[in-house]
């Protein structure tokens, strides 16, 4: 369904709405119906007594849509009067892939109930079309939904808000494929092609990808081992990869590769669709470098596809780690056309030790505390996602001992278990 058709209220009736109060609790689900429903405590708590709205930025184009959603969030945060709460919300077709549309749920408890005026002003400013659903409470306690639509017939239309059951699959997982994680170079490539007009740097990135691909196609078959080191920040990847480079006489590579370093900040500022496509393409450039270098020496890689997928999945999947799809889900599969390493090692340290290392590296106390509090849930999701990725799966390494001990542990794994140190041993 093209997003624009959702400007008609009737189109929303086949969909379910999810409102996330916070990341720790279950979301609240509701639907629109022509019939009233029994009294529901959860809905009562969500809807309360103030004025309520759902706001969606509607575009047919996926790049525009992703950017419009991010811009809408900033604009609402800046323009809403004090007393308003802005909650992440989405609408979806239960368990149907790619059906999720992200938006916001707005509780207006401001002194003058002026959120509607602020939203109308944003609507008038354009250029993106906003769909605004308004909820009102009847005297009998029922909640009704209507649209702030241009056509009078649409404005007259009203539906009851009714509770909906939680779907089997968490809605935030529905759009991951080709919006957050890309399983073929072509799919990530297309996203950046679609961005060329609005982000001129995309062209330069695509040229670098194509240059490396030509070289990749001419490179020799891989002969030496390719060892990827993964892990959350400050788990010791840089320290270990440098020591491994010396110990194995290896070539050290990174993903994203050095040639993309100057573009990173630019793409980090973009919404997930664009940002993740950039990192996905970085892996293909690194893959071409791996293919070239592994013909004459072992290769050690600091982050690769596990990082790209694990961070993307953990960011896309809202709420708790239980919402991540189970092992075996297609979202954890390795891209069909991306060079596979010989071994992937995931460095793991306790949250306390990681924080100690971050602090040692120069974080101040306040930032340290906020890292621990706010990101705890996110880090657990990244860690879980790392461990669920398959073909190749990663081997978890306890990285809490001293750097020398971690190095010896890893060398042991490489030499004994995989017998990979020299080309003769393969
Ligand atoms: N085994 C270890 N024991 C104690 N401290 C360590 C160990 N390994 C690394 N460190 C220290 O922890 C900090 C983070 O290490 P490092 O930079 O290697 O991590 P990283 O995973 O590469 O981080 P990032 O992903 O953020 O670049 C550094 O100050 C480093 O000296
Ligand atoms: N292969 C990669 C590497 C990194 N990312 C993204 O970058 C962030 C971590 O990078 P550091 O420089 O802090 O190590 C992380 O948020 C990932 O989103 C990636 O996607 N793929």
From TrEMBL:
Keywords: ATP-binding, Coiled coil, Kinase, Mitochondrion, Nucleotide biosynthesis, Nucleotide-binding, Pyrimidine biosynthesis, Transferase, Transit peptide
Catalytic reactions on record: dTMP + ATP = dTDP + ADP; CMP + ATP = CDP + ADP; dCMP + ATP = dCDP + ADP
Cellular compartment(s): Mitochondrion
Enzyme class: transferase
Any one GO CC term of the record: mitochondrion
UniProt xrefs under SUPFAM superfamilies: P-loop containing nucleoside triphosphate hydrolases
EC number: 2.7.4.14, 2.7.4.9
Recorded GO MF terms: ATP binding; dTMP kinase activity; nucleoside diphosphate kinase activity; nucleoside monophosphate kinase activity
Primary localization: mitochondrion
Matches recorded under Pfam families: Thymidylate_kin (PF02223)
Gene3D superfamilies named among the record's database cross-references: P-loop containing nucleotide triphosphate hydrolases
Domain called Thymidylate kinase-like: residue spans: 229-409
Keyword Nucleotide-binding: yes
Gene Ontology process terms (BP): dTDP biosynthetic process; dTTP biosynthetic process; dUDP biosynthetic process
Domain of life: Eukaryota
Family listed: Belongs to the thymidylate kinase family.
Name the UniProt record assigns to this protein: UMP-CMP kinase 2, mitochondrial
Organism: Ictalurus punctatus
């Amino acid at each position: 369904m093209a997003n624009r058709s959702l400007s008609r209220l009737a189109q929303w009736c086949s969909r379910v709405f999810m409102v996330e109060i916070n990341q720790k609790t279950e979301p609240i689900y509701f639907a629109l119906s022509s019939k009233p429903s029994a009294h529901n405590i959860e809905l009562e708590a969500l809807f309360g007594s103030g004025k309520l709205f759902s706001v969606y930025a509607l575009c047919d184009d996926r790049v525009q849509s992703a950017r419009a959603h991010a811009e809408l969030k900033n604009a609402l945060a800046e323009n809403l009067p004090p007393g308003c709460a802005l909650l992440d919300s989405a609408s979806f077709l239960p368990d149907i892939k790619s059906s999720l549309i992200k938006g916001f749920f707005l509780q207006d408890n401001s002194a003058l109930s002026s959120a509607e005026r602020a939203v109308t002003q944003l609507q008038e400013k354009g250029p993106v079309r906003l769909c605004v659903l308004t909820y009102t409470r009847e005297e009998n306690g029922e909640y009704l939904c209507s649209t702030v639509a241009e056509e009078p017939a649409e404005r007259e239309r009203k539906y009851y808000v009714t509770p909906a059951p939680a779907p089997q699959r968490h809605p935030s997982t529905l759009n991951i494929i080709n919006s957050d994680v890309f399983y073929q170079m072509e799919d990530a490539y297309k996203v950046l092609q679609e961005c060329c007009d609005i982000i001129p740097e995309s062209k330069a990135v695509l040229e670098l990808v194509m240059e490396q691909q030509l070289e990749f196609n001419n490179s020799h078959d891989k002969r030496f081992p390719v060892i990827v080191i993964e892990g959350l920040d400050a788990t010791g990847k840089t320290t270990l990869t440098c020591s491994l480079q010396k110990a194995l006489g290896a070539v050290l590579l990174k993903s994203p590769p050095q040639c993309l370093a100057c573009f990173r900040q630019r793409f980090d500022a973009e919404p997930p669709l664009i940002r993740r496509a950039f990192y996905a393409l970085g892996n293909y450039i690194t893959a071409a470098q791996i293919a070239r270098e592994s013909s004459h020496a072992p290769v050690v890689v600091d982050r690769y596809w596990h990082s790209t997928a694990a961070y993307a999945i953990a960011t896309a999947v809202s709420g708790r780690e239980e919402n991540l799809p189970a092992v075996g889900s297609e979202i954890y599969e390795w891209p069909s056309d991306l060079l596979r390493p010989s071994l992937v090692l995931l460095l793991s340290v306790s949250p306390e030790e990681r924080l100690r290392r971050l602090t040692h590296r120069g974080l101040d106390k306040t930032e340290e505390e906020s890292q621990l509090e706010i990101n705890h849930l996110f880090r657990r999701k990244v860690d879980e996602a790392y461990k669920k990725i398959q073909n190749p799966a990663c081997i978890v390494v306890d990285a809490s001992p001293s750097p020398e001990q971690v190095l010896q542990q890893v060398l042991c794994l490489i030499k004994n278990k995989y017998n990979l140190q020299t080309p003769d041993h393969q």
